[in-house]
DNA sequence: AATGAATGAGCTTTCATTCAT
DNA sequence: TATGAATGAAAGCTCATTCAT
């Protein structure tokens, strides 16, 4: 009777189910996860899943939604306007990487499952887009005299891509958060803020774009 | 009946099937692609697929293999040792991004499908790892007096991650190759080659690590 | 819809399925029996078969197991040690032949299907071997002064073979149980217990064994 | 090029194919044998099989037919009217068991495959029936003063059944022909020729028939 | 509120069989 | 004569989903 036939309040049951679902989805992937497996993991019966969530797709969407929200919440501290841009960047990086480090299942479900799943990618792309926007804003506000045509969004796309790649290594336990944050901070702070095609100049004085 | 019922030599049919398979896999994903759909797309019968490739898994593996090979071939020009590191980098970036631009299906199958498919990720990860190693080597060889503790591999991970993120935008038709190559070149050339935590120093002379 | 869509307790459904399976297997043979055919015969859907028995092989094994058990149970009375060997033999024969007479499907599935099916023959051969051993023992215990080199096992093999051949005729409705039991009793009681090569003697009086 | 593309006379090809077919059928059973396997074994192409035999069923029938004929031929010496009944029996037994011993594949295909194959059993049953008739005739002709109601056919059925069971052991290499022939000769000569229900007598002296 | 029982629909895979050369 | 190329048809199996209690 692990879990038994207790009557639980709806909110509790919902979380219990989502917890199980996120676990199994992150372990086996969306398609290789059966509703049976989730029900078993949650110690409830299959019809309960359908009663609460309607379908496998909706259940997965609920997972994405909850984990995405947690993800965004984890990044909130970075938005503190009292901090200098560079501090904000550092906080954002540590928040992001720390979240991945401590919620590997969330990360797997959100990024490695949802993004590759026809029909769910868009939903995740929203969270991702907000992260990219945030990053673009940070880059812009910390750049003095930006080159007129600078496209901070695409820079943010690249930076976030780098961040995700590094996050995968963190989720895999291959590197630690501090080291990763250092690397990305450097990358953001120096590599992205420069002019876009300043070959003739920067090859000689590449630092002019960002140094004091 | 586009294609008809002609008898084709084995080699031709093989390519015809792979073409169809790559198309459909890239459109619908591995799991949501049925062998029927591939057979229909290739204008052949399902048993032919099994006769030539044995199973869905093996067919998918064959797709990965062919596209992966093409991918590697596209990057070959970058290995020219006659070029200066920076030139090699530029060529590599343009080759890579150009390939993605002109073979969006290959990119989708290789990266967005294979990497997320349990059992195939490893196969692709190998190619990816080689790309990372190559990048790390490039970074190292273009850095004078590198900081002793510098981990070029993780830098390469980040850079490749950035490249993949940008490549996705190219595959999505959102940006063009030139712009993306500029961005990544800058990123690689300046952002990654410095010391890892040189705040106090490099913010003043960030160029010492790489400029003449 | 003979049977309808009622909800039945597990144990009942199990028997219902096995009944249908034994019927269809005995009619068409293992390979020419489809799971669809069994499901239809049992008035249920195919997934139920898989839910309860896992696979076609396991379903067939379950048939063998149940019918084999019934078969063994039918022979139990013969083991009564209070009976003289000859009585035991008579009871065994009548039990055996009576069972075949009244459970022709069981007989067909067990002997004509299972024994010829690679992978299941062994399972049945075990029961058969036990029957042979039992017969050998019976023969030995009812023989006074057995010839030293007498191989009772091979005798039992022959006798059981004769019994099976006769049983086939009973299952085919060609002869009746009494007649068959008489024949086999005679065969066992007189034909098998003698010396193996008594040429010189019996070739002259071959009739002494049976004539008045 | 084992076999190559030689033009062979029809008769030779036919035997070549049948040899291969009998081999593979006896190894894997009818259903688990594919036309591909037979073609490969015969070193020819599949369409040749169809050209010569029309269908898998017809090919199998041809196997049964050829092997059955050989089987019957092997028994021919036993019909020599110059021999005494007992000699005829001995010859028949040795012919039969010797054939099985030296043509195990034939035996397997004819008895263990064909008999259990819906649609072919009848065809084999013919050969078998002739064997049974022959046996019945031998029994009858060697019995003096047969009991009026004696059914020699069912006796022959039992005896042939015993012979087949013993033959299986020979095919399995468990016993040798001589020993088996001795046993069956004894069985036929003494066990089957008597009255069918001689209870009152033999229950008192059951051993008189065989003890010294 | 909760679940054991049940199924429609679809997928991968395998042949026996035939065509076109 | 001989075969590489091709397929129609069907089988085993799974799963998301629902009904009846």
TrEMBL record, chains A, B, C, D:
PROSITE patterns for the chain: HTH_TETR_2
InterPro entries documented for this protein: DesT_TetR_C (IPR054129), Homeodomain-like_sf (IPR009057), HTH-type_TetR-like_transc_reg (IPR050109), HTH_TetR (IPR001647), Tet_transcr_reg_TetR-rel_C_sf (IPR036271)
Sequence ranges assigned to domain HTH tetR-type in this UniProt record: 11-71
DNA-binding annotation, residue ranges on this chain: 34-53
UniProt keyword annotation of Signal present: no
Membrane-spanning residues: none
Stored Pfam families: TetR_C_46, TetR_N
Keyword annotations of the record: DNA-binding, Transcription, Transcription regulation
Superkingdom to which the source organism belongs: Bacteria
Signal peptide stretch: none
Annotated PANTHER family: HTH-TYPE TRANSCRIPTIONAL REGULATOR RUTR, POSSIBLE TRANSCRIPTIONAL REGULATORY PROTEIN (PROBABLY TETR-FAMILY)
UniProt-recorded name of the protein: TetR/AcrR family transcriptional regulator
Species, as recorded: Rhodococcus chondri
Lineage: Bacteria, Bacillati, Actinomycetota, Actinomycetes, Mycobacteriales
């Amino acid at each position: 009777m692990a879990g038994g036939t207790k009557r639980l309040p709806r909110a509790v049951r919902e979380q219990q189910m989502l917890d199980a679902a996120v676990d199994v989805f992150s372990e086996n992937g969306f398609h290789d996860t059966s509703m049976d497996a989730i029900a078993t993991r949650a110690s409830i019966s299959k019809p309960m899943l359908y009663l609460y969530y309607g379908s496998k797709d909706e259940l997965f969407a609920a997972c994405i939604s909850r984990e995405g929200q947690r993800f965004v919440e984890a990044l909130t501290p970075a938005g503190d306007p009292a901090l200098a841009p560079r501090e904000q960047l550092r906080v954002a990086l540590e928040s992001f990487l720390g979240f991945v480090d401590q919620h590997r299942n969330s990360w797997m479900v959100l990024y490695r499952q949802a993004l590759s799943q026809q029909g769910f990618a868009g939903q995740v792309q929203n969270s991702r887009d907000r992260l990219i926007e945030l990053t673009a804003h940070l880059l812009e506000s910390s750049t003095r005299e930006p080159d007129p045509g600078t496209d901070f969004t695409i820079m943010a796309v690249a930076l976030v891509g780098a961040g995700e790649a590094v996050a995968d290594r963190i989720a895999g336990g291959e590197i630690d958060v501090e080291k990763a944050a250092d690397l990305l901070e450097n990358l953001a702070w120096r590599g992205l803020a420069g002019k876009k095609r300043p070959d003739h100049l920067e090859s000689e004085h590449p630092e002019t774009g960002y140094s004091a």
